[in-house]
Protein 1
Amino acid sequence: MDHDIERILISREQIAARVHELAGEIVVSYPNLHDRITIVTILSGSIIFLADLIRQMPIKMEIGLITVSSYSGATTESRGARLMKDLNVDIRDRDVLIVDDIFDTGGTLRLVKGLLEERRPRSLKTAVLLRKRAKNPPDVSVEFVGFDIEDRFVVGYGLDFNDQYRNCPHIAVLKPEVYATG
């Protein structure tokens, strides 16, 4: 796997430190938490981020899962967000935090926020590990951001290319020949 990496953008140590800080920022933003927070994670890319994030959050929570697909197969171009599996918990009158791996064009978050807002949560906030600021649409906002990155297709820490490289502990860019052979 390491031989496929062109360069590491964010090391595992940088990720661990920022996830710890981000968890603190999130917890502080809920001073009047009524009961517990419902964390809705967008599968599959955010699962590693979610696992590390919630272990740093000393508050009551429940986890909701939703599956959205934007990429299919060996491609680096989004084909538009599509709901694959709907949310498995009731969020009406709950404080909800959406957790996603990357905020790129906004298609995934626009879709998920719209679906969740229809279910009338008490509050709805969003946390992402990565944000490509150059591509963000003005109609989709994110309250908590781990890192701003350049507009490159990245893998690692849950993000994949053709269902591979999710287990890379860093955020990395693959060598161009890897994308070509898919």
Protein 2
Amino acid sequence: MAQNIVIVNTGCANISSVKFAVERLGVNVTVSDDTQVISKADKVFLPGVGTANAAMASIEQKQLVSCIRDLSQPVLGICLGMQLMVDESEEGIGKNTPCLGLIPGQVKRMQVGELRLPHMGWNQISPVEQNTLFKGIDAGSYFYFVHSFAVAPSEYTLASCDYGMTFSAAIHKDNFFGVQFHPERSSHAGAQLLKNFLEL
């Protein structure tokens, strides 16, 4: 039975790369900002690049906030999409940006000492549990990151990563999952994670 997979058109730039990565797994994908289409999906991707305030403004303008909050099927936020899932982000113009509030947490600018930001390139992750997104993915697997803001580890952390500090590489609550890295740019491990999500 073919699944109905929808990528939320958040108005951000990396949507096509997520779409191609899922299609490489032999799955058809719809990109939409229509609330009817999104709410009927079997699985939903929430991608994002850019700044939290710009992305939230786009989601609010498209009137998608309550639609996303009401979803009961599995939802995967990617990169900025993951950051939009928590309560608020420090990434705003002079003030914090309220986010979707799906998973408790705050996005803060990374404190990495002498290391440069953004944290960009391949880094290893340490899964806290391996029965959902990280099934068949070894601890220490490399994923591709590009970010300057991060969510601190908490009881909702599925995997952590270190870059001058420890941060959440993946988070989860109920039907909502988020990954800070780009699975669509993370080779075999990323493809396995996307496959695991589609099989939830």
Protein 3
Amino acid sequence: MLIDHTDQEQMMAVRDGDLDALGPLFEKYNKALYHHFLMQTGHTQISEDLVQEVFFRILKYRHTYRGESKFSTWLYSIGHNVKMDYYRKKKMKTVALDNANRVASKDPEPDTQTEKNNEAHLVHQALQRLSEDKREVLILSRFQNMKYEEIAEVTGCAVGTIKARVHHALKALSTIYLELSGESAS
């Protein structure tokens, strides 16, 4: 397994008391972590709060970092726990998706942009209808490009369970997407 030594070395420095070393890690991971939470919660403010809580916990529990796996795997493990704590605290199972429109740097033709927006909206709606465990593994595997072994470490599940969840999540996502778009599965 290839490990990003720069991330590991920076986190080791944070663990050993160099808190300034956390800055580059925050800059590198905060946007990806924010989008990860946004895809799961559908709320910008909640996602921002969860990112802040992850980095707060990194500081608070920095002494527990051992560097045995990739830093990003440790980061997403903390993120998983933060999200679960949030849902437990708020007694929420699902959160509706809010309007997360993004402004493109180059606007395509109006019809193309409308079609892409509709497709993206349907995908987000379909994601929100998945069970939380399926949604999480799908986001980690397809949007965060994590390997099954890393997802297993993040979630505390067996690799086989992760593979099955991703398979079932993709199948369910496809079915829900087709229902939402008015098409039928063939």
